[in-house]
Amino acid sequence: MTEGPDATERAGSDIAATLRPGDVVLVSGELGAGKTTFVRGALRALGVTGPVTSPTFTLARRYDGDGVEISHLDLHRLAGAPDEEDEAILADEATAARITFVEWPEMGGELHLTRAPRAHVRLAHAGGDRRAIAVTR
Ligand code: ADP
Ligand code: MG
Question: 35, 37, 61, 107: which to mutate for ligand 1, most atoms within 8 A of CB?
């Protein structure tokens, strides 16, 4: 449970400490649950200093972390039915050299990522600024 965005960012930075290149982290939860906030915290801990926003319209955004490349996906706009072009992007995105975060993984159809997820984070509204965070590894 977190009481505000800063605490959710810290939860993201905690998970970041356990990640290596090639790891894929799925991040689920309703709109506003804090998925991007969680990923922002993880990216800060991985050495990303610039803005971190949902790549909703671009599907994927790459970042240079401290010695590691990061990919941040948001599959919301696929609405569960990726077309061929989307599939090609997904197939290319999660490589052995990158750490990959995926918002709205359930919208990716069969989610043709080349790698199995390392962790699945689920965020849920719990009243006001509180959020429940569950991590499955
Ligand atoms: P999502 O990516 O799931 O749609 P965002 O992280 O973009 O969600 O937005 C979450 C919004 O909720 C932000 O405006 C953030 O400031 C607010 N918020 C309030 N409390 C929390 C909390 N405990 N954790 C994360 N975000 C929170
Ligand atoms: Mg988001």
Answer: 37
